[in-house]
């Protein structure tokens, strides 16, 4: 079979065969997408407009909301369009763009979650040094490092993946262009180059995960040593949303990429991909707003301001 060229197209996995189910999927995903846009948009507006939230923790939360918007906007609109127009096609360039942006936003988000763990560690374990270690300049540099590392990682994987000769057809067994499923289309042994890049990324992912775990071990030890119960109640709410987001992010990603090949089949892969690419960006704003009183107050004030403005 001839190689897939840049003028060709890929065929994505369809959610359903019948027209009624396709339209149902479109409506469902449209609801999820609008909820993600609204939730993350409110977080962005609340942090930007409320001066009380101009702190390192909320600066990183603002960056997280931006990454969540980018991540879900990379995959879901194309899936909705395919369901609406009853097609599976995505262009070669569109597929490469999906891989680039998804790996970029996904990788940057985990780097940012690692930085947020460091922020919580310094705030609770070394509060006297917080201003000097996590100042505005340091925050900007750390955020830039998260975005920059994600972009370089994405360029590496996209360039490596799409430089491989793809000669096993053009049907991608996923609802968006995902590297492992594209590698299945590559010629024998050619995919080993990308596997080496994936091993490097997994090693970095594991290093960040270990850093987060060690940070929270130190945080919990410091919190449990606090003599005041009021101090413990004040410290835990600032950590629980981040810990919940990390747990959701890591558990779905690990199951998606490290599950045994023996339990890999299209319907399960589809559900798992939805869990780690769609659910976290939609739920993260809810997790932070439900567990953080300052965010809830800022969102409430934002709604009040909007209502007064339109009266």
TrEMBL record:
GO terms for cellular component: plasma membrane
Record-linked PROSITE patterns: G_PROTEIN_RECEP_F1_1, G_PROTEIN_RECEP_F1_2
A matching Pfam family: 7tm_4
UniProt cross-references to CDD domains, sorted A to Z: 7tmA_OR14-like
Stated name of the protein: Olfactory receptor
Keyword field: Cell membrane, G-protein coupled receptor, Membrane, Olfaction, Receptor, Sensory transduction, Transducer, Transmembrane, Transmembrane helix
Domain G-protein coupled receptors family 1 profile: 39-288
Cellular compartments annotated: Cell membrane
Protein family: Belongs to the G-protein coupled receptor 1 family.
Coiled-coil ranges (or none): none
Function of the molecule: Odorant receptor.
Molecular-function GO terms, alphabetical: G protein-coupled receptor activity; olfactory receptor activity
Residue intervals passing through the bilayer: 23-45, 57-76, 96-118, 138-156, 198-217, 238-258, 270-288
Bilayer topology annotation: Multi-pass membrane protein
């Amino acid at each position: 079979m001839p190689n897939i060229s840049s003028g060709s197209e890929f065929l994505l996995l369809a959610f359903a065969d019948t027209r009624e189910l396709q339209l149902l999927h479109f409506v469902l995903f449209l609801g999820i997408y609008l909820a993600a846009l609204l939730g993350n948009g409110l977080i962005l507006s609340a942090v930007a407009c409320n001066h009380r939230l101009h702190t390192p923790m909320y600066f990183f939360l603002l960056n997280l909301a931006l990454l969540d918007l980018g991540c879900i906007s990379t995959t879901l609109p194309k899936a909705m369009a395919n369901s609406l127009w009853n097609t599976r096609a995505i262009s070669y360039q569109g597929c490469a763009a999906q891989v680039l942006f998804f790996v970029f936003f996904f990788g940057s988000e985990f780097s940012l979650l690692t930085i947020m763990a460091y922020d919580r560690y310094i705030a609770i374990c070394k509060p006297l040094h917080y201003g000097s270690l996590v100042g505005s300049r340091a925050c900007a540099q750390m955020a830039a490092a998260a975005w920059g590392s994600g972009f370089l990682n994405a360029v590496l994987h996209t360039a490596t993946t799409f430089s491989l000769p793809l000669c096993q057809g053009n049907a991608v067994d996923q609802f968006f262009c995902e590297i492992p499923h594209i590698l299945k289309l590559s010629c024998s042994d050619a995919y080993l180059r990308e596997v080496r890049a994936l091993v490097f990324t997994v090693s970095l992912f594991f290093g960040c995960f270990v850093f987060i775990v060690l940070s929270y071990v130190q945080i919990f030890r410091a919190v449990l040593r606090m003599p005041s119960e009021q101090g413990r109640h004040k410290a835990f709410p600032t950590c629980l949303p981040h810990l919940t987001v990390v747990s959701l992010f890591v558990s779905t990603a690990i199951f998606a990429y490290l599950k045994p090949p023996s339990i890999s089949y299209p319907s399960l892969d589809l559900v798992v991909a939805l869990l780690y690419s769609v659910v976290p960006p939609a739920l993260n704003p809810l997790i932070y707003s439900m567990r953080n009183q300052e965010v809830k107050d800022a969102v409430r004030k934002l709604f009040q301001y909007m209502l007064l403005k339109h009266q």
